[in-house]
Every structure is written in C-alpha cells, then in structure tokens.
Give the backbone structure.
Amino acid sequence: MKIKNSTFVISAVSPSQYPEDQLPEIAMAGRSNVGKSSLINMLINRKNLARTSSTPGKTQTINFYDIDEKFRFVDLPGYGYARVSKESKKAWGKIIETYLGGRENLLEVILLVDSRHKPTEQDKQMYKWIKEYGFSGIVIATKLDKLKNSQIKKSLNTIKKELEMGDDEILMAISSSNRKGKYEVWELLNNIFEVNELDIHFERQSKK
C-alpha cells in the first residue's frame, strides 16, 4: 500500500496522555537537531508534518504521528543541548525512559546519530537503554550529504566502534535533504512489521 493519510496525533509527557489504542509504534530517538523530524517527513513525503525546529532542545515532548491508521511514528524528545538546564535534562530522560519501559505496542526504537561526528556520551547511554529494553539496536546515521564520499566508510566505522555495535546490528546512512536511503529505510520498516507478524507493508513512497 501507499500512504494516503498521515496526521499528528498528540504531544505527550506522561503515559496518561499517550494514544489509548494499540496501534504498533516505531520510535525515533536521538539528540537535538539530529534530524528525527526531518526523517519522518521524508519517509511520508510531507514537508512539515513532523515538527522541526532550528532551535536545539525545543522539542520537550513525545510526539505521535498516525500513518494510515496502520502504525505510528513516535518522535522522542531530543537530548544533549548544552543550554538546557540539568532539571530539564533529567525530566526529559525520565519521559523517554518511562515510554521505553512501559509501552507494550512499541515495536522498535531507532537511534539517530549525526554521521559527521562521533556518538556523544548521551548517544551511547541512549543506545544502551535501547538494548537493555530488548530492542534490536538499529542505528541511522543522518546528514550523509554533509560528508564527502571518501569520508563515509570511516564515519560509519567510527559510529559502530563507539557504540560497540555487533556485526549483526543494523547501521544505515541517510540524507533527508537529498532523500538518499529513503527506500532502504522503508524496507527496514516493512521487515520490522513482518518480524512482528503484522499485516502491514508499504510500497516505495515515491514523491508526489
């Protein structure tokens, strides 16, 4: 199927505000300005459904997006912005941890990291959380268009090494600007649905 309707559902900070139905969810985690919202918009051929901001640290809530009433993308609060207070950082961490640990219909959590830089200590902590909660440890490196072709392999090797990723764990590279990696990500999502025995499969989402 092709996506016909994608909508913003709600911004939440606690389980009482989460959508009550049991639609499958795939969450995107990563530090502020890494490109979570941009990736979601690219995947669904929308320019601004997922809320993007030029101000790092602005997204302080869990944002839920319904995709054809089949599943939801979930944009987790961005972390790692230096100007945010310690109290805010602690609160955001609790919001993320509560969601990861208690959301039964959460299929997978994908960690986004900036392909241009080594993963931060908070990236490493998030990756550790993701693995500890039983998810696969999928990582997507963003902003690939900012690298020269000669830099890509070295960058991806550095990310795998810093996160201590196993040989069987998935690392993909994308650019939301030029849409590179879009179809590969959809293949990954379809595989997640299949592994979870869900009758959900999306065709290539060609630009309208």
